[in-house]
Design goal:
6-stranded parallel beta sheet; about 30% strand; about 25% helix; globular; 13 helices; Immunoglobulin-like; 29 strands
């Protein structure tokens, strides 16, 4: 059989060669975890065929890493005939890629580039049940923990440049490493000026060591109004993933999901689309006035956000759900520094990571957060869990190693510990000043240095912590979740009101009360969380009340 000679138009071969060269030049030697961009320009013919590239052009690039991990990155339209694929290689070495598109001259194109090594810690991920770690380990091979401390600037896209940079610089100096930002402008077409401004500002935050927590919209109703159909919402999600997933970010679908009557199915749809589109698997959740935990059942969230000022909600849910919790600090802007500080440390004792919701950039307003960050940085914070064997305060602990206690109302403290010698640090949460002592035994008792304000106590085997931090073990012990007792005869209390389900009527105030069967230390400090659900509505449970008695 005679051999075949395949002939291609010279312009097509030159175009393919030019594309490979441009893409390689754009990303060659880019450091790992730094975004680079491949730019695609529509030809005259394709521009005429697809006058609205945002809705008409499909383009994504599949990247293969040196260790054979695949990233599938959708392109985003950036005005005119221009589409951009923004990728952050997650490891050093040679990357290969292939283009998939409904534009014939792009479809099937392949190429490669080489990413450079980087000292970047990577993106963040869930770790050790309730905690966070970076995707990259230390050079020693030990996993690298992440201590989440957030602030809020939902209007950051509308700030002038000087105000934005002043705010970002101040937050970085105050040691905040997360900033909540509102994304949505108007729909259904992207507001390109707004998104380009977001690009520059998110890039600046990342350079400052701040992760951008992207809140897609104020509420589910805003998403439904801007993008009425499922196809429009899916397109918008892919646009955001293409534009922002290469940055160091997290996703929060809305600020308050409870504001929309039929929020759950809408957020499930959008959350699932986000989970499927984001190959980097950035953390996902939704903001909430009270708690977003009712949405966990739908499996698209990787952490829960809580806005309730009541510690009962956070403390109880921490025992029930194996995910990290982030407190959004839904306190009034005029709250005094002491109230903010009490909320900060009580949220910590609930097992939550924290957020400053105020807008001020004066260090005096945020000093307690900086003290918090410095204090927690000296602990194995990624292993601290709520601890209850004490009187006179609230605690988190890695039992036998360290105990961190918050005494909101100074007075006598009793703390049971494993029998060892400990360093005792009384920490002033206002300014971080430390008073040091020593203790040996299994039953610590004492009073704070003075009673004029709240105190933090750190009872720690410092040498043991230093030794563990040099170990390869990120998790020194298993975190066990609470098992819910379903047998009423084994519970230490009984419900007096309402006496039966027949006494519960939707839309009507209902009295509730309980009776403790036996008094113990545990029942004296017991927390009460009442939830209810209209099963037929499919919206999940809602918090009805806290406390042993009151009115729903």
């Amino acid at each position: 059989m005679a051999g075949r000679v395949w002939c291609f138009p010279l312009w097509l071969m030159l175009l393919a060669a030019a594309f490979r060269l441009e893409a390689q030049q754009a990303c060659n030697n880019v450091p790992a975890y730094s975004p680079c961009e491949m730019v695609f320009d529509l030809s005259d013919a394709d521009a005429a065929r697809y006058p609205n590239p945002y809705t008409g052009v499909n383009l994504q690039v599949e990247f293969g890493s040196p260790r054979h991990r695949t990233l599938v990155v959708p392109a985003f339209w950036d005005g005119g005939r221009k589409l951009v694929v923004r990728v952050a290689p997650t490891e050093a070495g040679e990357w290969n890629y292939q283009v998939n598109s409904n534009i014939a001259q792009w479809n099937g194109k392949t190429g490669s580039f080489t990413a450079a090594a980087s000292e970047a810690p990577g993106f963040i991920r869930r770790a050790n049940v309730h905690h966070w770690a970076y995707t990259e380990r230390y050079s020693t091979g030990i996993e690298r923990p992440h201590l989440w401390m957030g602030a809020a600037a939902l209007n950051f896209a509308d700030m002038d440049d000087a105000s934005f940079h002043a705010m970002a610089d101040a937050r970085a100096a105050q040691k905040f490493n997360h900033l909540r930002l509102l994304v949505l402008g108007s729909g259904p077409q992207p507001d390109l000026a707004r998104f380009r401004r977001l690009d520059d500002r998110i890039r600046y935050l990342n350079q400052k060591g701040i992760i951008a927590d992207l809140v897609l919209a104020p509420g589910p109703g805003d998403l439904a109004k801007a993008f009425p159909t499922a196809e429009e919402r899916r397109r918008f999600v892919r646009y955001l993933v293409g534009r922002y997933a290469a940055f160091n970010i997290t996703w929060e679908l809305v600020d308050h999901f409870e504001d929309y009557a039929d929020a759950r199915p809408l957020l499930k749809e959008i959350g699932q689309a986000l989970k499927e589109a984001d190959s980097y698997d950035h953390p996902r959740s939704s903001g909430a006035l009270v708690t977003s935990a009712p949405l966990l059942e739908d499996k698209w969230m990787s952490f829960s956000c809580q806005g309730a000022p009541d510690d009962v909600v956070g403390s109880v849910e921490h025992q029930l759900y194996p995910v990290p919790f982030v407190n959004l600090d839904e306190m009034p802007p005029a709250a005094d520094p002491a109230a903010i500080r009490h909320r900060l440390w009580n949220a910590t004792m609930d097992g939550q990571y924290v957020t400053f919701a105020g807008t001020g950039t004066d260090a005096a307003q945020t000093k307690s957060f900086t003290v918090w960050f410095d204090t927690l940085s000296d602990t194995r914070h990624w292993e601290l869990e709520p601890y209850f064997d004490l009187d006179g305060g609230r605690a988190v602990a890695l039992e036998g190693v360290e105990y961190l206690v918050y005494i909101e109302k100074p007075g006598p403290l009793e703390l049971k510990v494993e029998k060892h010698g400990y360093d005792v640090l009384w920490i002033n949460p206002i300014d971080g000043e430390i008073t040091r002592k020593k203790f040996s035994g299994d039953h610590f008792t004492g009073d704070p240095p003075d009673k004029s304000h709240d105190w933090v106590l750190h009872v720690v085997r410092e040498g043991r912590v230093e030794s563990m931090n040099r170990s390869y073990k990120f998790e020194s012990r298993e975190i066990l979740m609470q098992e819910v007792e379903s047998l009423t005869d084994k519970t230490p209390f009984e419900i007096e009101q309402p006496a039966s389900a027949a006494d519960v009527t939707v839309g009507k105030a209902i009295s509730y009360s309980t009776k403790v069967k036996r008094e113990t230390r545990a029942t004296r400090s017991m927390m009460w969380l009442w939830t209810g659900e209209v099963a037929a509505d499919g919206q999940g449970y809602r918090v009805l009340a806290t406390g042993s008695q009151g009115t729903f």
